[in-house]
Amino acid sequence: MLEPETLMQIALEEARLALDTGDVPVGAVIVDGSGRVIAKGRNEREATKDPTAHAEIIAIRRAANQLQSWQLNELTLVVTLEPCAMCAGAILASRIPRVIFAAWDEKAGASGSVHDLLRDRRLPHRVEVLGGILEAESQTLLREFFEARRS
């Protein structure tokens, strides 16, 4: 497996692409155990007018399509922002065993900050979570995006 920082750089590249459509710059990549990229995704809510078009959802759909299976139980999801409750539900439903993320989301995070759905012992599937990888880079990208929208 590639280093988490290397994988996060790929996710950050996807996040930057979201800026082209006016979407919040969040990117995701799904890799196998050797670090081979299976799928990528970026926020596309503005581009598609789809409220579920979060980077993680896009990447999960593409990975499932690529592998022709809804069970993604050998893969790792790398994303630039802590997954929200919707995305955490999709991660659990697809059986992804490991999530790496950059920035914590103190407003809507569901992977350790506001909620911790991915490691909830009441659920049948729990996920290994590693947060804070290249956090400053992701936070800067997000902060600059929202500052530009306010001005």
Structure description:
This protein has a 5-stranded mixed β-sheet with strand order 2-1-3-4-5. The chain has 5 helices and 5 strands; from the N terminus they run αββααβαββα. With 151 residues, it is α/β, with parallel strands linked by helices. Helix content is 38%, strand content 17%.
Summarize the structure.
With 151 residues, this protein is α/β, with parallel strands linked by helices. 38% of the residues lie in helices and 17% in strands.
Give a topology summary.
Layout: H1 4-18, E1 27-31, E2 37-42, H2 45-48, H3 55-67, E3 76-81, H4 85-93, E4 98-103, E5 128-130, H5 135-150
Parallel strand pairs: 3-4, 4-5
Antiparallel strand pairs: 1-2, 1-3
- Terminal Cα span: 42 Å
Main β-sheet description: 5 strands, mixed
Give the topology string: H per helix, E per strand.
Answer: HEEHHEHEEH
Task: Tell how many strands the DSSP assignment holds.
Answer: 5
Q: Which oligomeric state applies?
A: single chain
* Range of strand content: 15-25%
Using only C-alpha atoms, the radius of gyration works out to 14 Å
**Average pLDDT:** 97
**Any idea what the shape is?**
globular
